[in-house]
Write a structure and sequence with these properties.
- The protein has 417 residues and is α/β, with parallel strands linked by helices.
- The protein has 14 helices and 24 strands.
- It has 2 domains: 203 residues, UDP-n-acetylglucosamine1-carboxyvinyl-transferase, Chain (Alpha-beta prism); 206 residues, Enolpyruvate transferase domain (UDP-n-acetylglucosamine1-carboxyvinyl-transferase, Chain, Alpha-beta prism).
- Helix 11 runs parallel beside helix 12.
- The longest helix has 14 residues.
- The model has no long low-confidence stretch (mean pLDDT 96).
- The structure holds uridine-diphosphate-2(N-acetylglucosaminyl) butyric acid.
Length: 417
């Protein structure tokens, strides 16, 4: 398991290009199950999760080629309708093949994801929606077994907006007979990106990005030809990197409109995020002030940026109260940040962070993707050396983060083990 050795204290300076969004790439890859032919996806980041989805599609009988950020997926007809436990347990987003498989082939057997490091993360809303569209679903020996003749349109209400749930149902409804209406749908930019990709395939999806999405089913779709949006969470991570090290980073390809809540909150703390011709320019405008935070579904502040924001608050002037409302166990980075000298207490879903003058390097362990990013950020700002263990979590969702940070002047080494 690789580790990262970071020697902190250097302001990061320069320009860096943000990669394609992980959470837009994975549903686009799943959408290739919806129709046979040669699909093209551009701006695909080279990540462990993308490789896992690649393995899943190959397991199902597809041919996947990936070169220079372009992925070509050839679907000559799915031969294997199972998403096995071994793949699903390493990546929950594997559930995204469920809707397309049922809609296109009338059958699917997908392992139930189970819990994960950040919470229980059930998929009941995905299943409820598919059942309303006519799928017969049974849970058998840890697997979701689904059958359907042609799915039909339905009125679906989510009591919690779910990102992959909305995506799964949008894909399934695209090939259903009649109109599907999803109420309290997730509004994330990745949902909008998938809707655009599907509409380019010939789907008729209206309202993606709003709480109510209407989908008129069609009989068949064309192959995908899509360029995924830049990763807004990677962008946010670089903004914090500029601020926490007192440097200045121009983030190329950044889309400020996908990060309004993040930028607004960071600006309140003293970070500048100016739009530039090529993206965003981020730097510390004034000493960082503590601000409270509550994670919310989009357009609120994303849970995927909570850990990185907390790293910044560790070094802010004052006390910040951070409330995590999306996942019940997403404070795993707290114990590790405390090992670096942070002053944080947790009560249920609330973390109270008292800013300290300095963090000190320490050996720490990554526990999930965004927690890893927060430890890297803390290490970049800390005095001395930080050794981040288990960085395979980081490699799941950040493309060559260590190399990118190095080009900005960070002292960071990957130790291969
Ligand atoms: N939920 C249910 N039932 C369901 C589905 C969700 O109760 O059937 C609950 C979840 O337990 C959670 C809330 O609804 O409390 C929202 O979860 P959501 O379904 O939106 O999460 P997800 O689709 O599994 C995606 C991202 C996550 C990101 C969340 C929230 C992908 C592949 N994953 O997960 O990304 O944190 O939305 O924005 O899109 C990451 O990239 O690090 C990551 C974890």
């Amino acid at each position: 398991m690789d580790q990262l050795l970071i020697t902190g204290g250097r302001p990061l300076k320069g320009a860096v290009k943000v990669s394609g969004a992980k959470n837009a790439t994975l549903p686009a890859m799943a959408a290739t199950v919806l129709t046979e032919g040669r699909h093209i996806i551009r701006n695909v980041p080279l990540l462990r999760d993308v490789k896992t989805m690649d393995r899943l599609l190959v397991h199902m009988g597809m041919d996947v080629r990936f070169e220079n950020s372009t992925m070509i997926i050839t679907n000559r007809g799915v031969r294997n309708f199972e998403a096995p436990y071994d793949l699903v347990k390493t990546m929950r987003a594997s559930i995204l093949v469920l809707g397309p498989m049922i809609a296109r082939y009338g059958r699917a057997r997908v392992s139930l994801p189970g819990g994960c490091a950040i919470g229980a993360r059930p998929v009941n809303l995905h299943l409820m929606g598919l059942e309303k569209m006519g799928a017969r679903i049974e849970l058998n020996q840890g697997y979701i077994e689904a059958r359907a003749s042609r799915l039909h349109g339905a009125d679906i209400y989510f009591d919690i907006p779910t990102v992959t749930g909305t995506e799964n149902l949008m894909m399934a409804a695209s090939l259903a007979k009649g109109v599907t209406r999803i109420e309290n749908a997730a509004r994330e930019p990745e949902v909008v990106d998938l809707a655009e990709a599907l509409n380019n395939m010939g789907a008729r999806i209206y309202g993606a990005g709003e709480s109510i999405i209407n989908i008129e089913g069609v009989d068949e779709l064309n192959p995908l030809n899509h360029t995924v949006i830049p990763d807004r969470i990677e962008t946010g991570t670089f903004i914090v990197a500029a601020a926490i090290t007192g440097g200045e980073i121009e983030i190329l390809n950044a889309r400020a409109e996908h990060l309004e809540a993040v930028i607004t909150k960071l600006e309140e703390t003293g970070v500048a995020c100016d739009t530039s011709a090529r993206g965003l320019r981020a730097y510390k405008r004034s000493p960082i002030q503590a601000r409270d935070l509550k994670t919310m579904p989009y357009p609120g502040f994303p849970t995927d940026m909570q850990a990185q924001f907390m790293a910044l608050m560790c070094l802010a002037e004052g006390t910040s109260v951070i409330r995590e409302t999306i996942f019940e166990n997403r404070f795993m980075h707290v114990a590790e940040l405390k090992r670096m000298g942070a002053d944080i207490t947790i009560e249920g879903s609330i973390a109270t962070v008292k800013g300290v003058k300095a963090l000190k390097g320490a050996p720490v362990m990554a526990t999930d993707l965004r927690a890893s990013a927060s430890l890297v950020l803390a290490g970049l700002a800390a005095e001395g050396e930080t050794l981040v263990d288990r960085i395979y979590h980081l490699d799941r969702g950040y493309e060559r983060l260590d190399d990118k940070l190095k080009t900005l002047g960070a002292r960071i080494e990957r130790i291969k083990r």
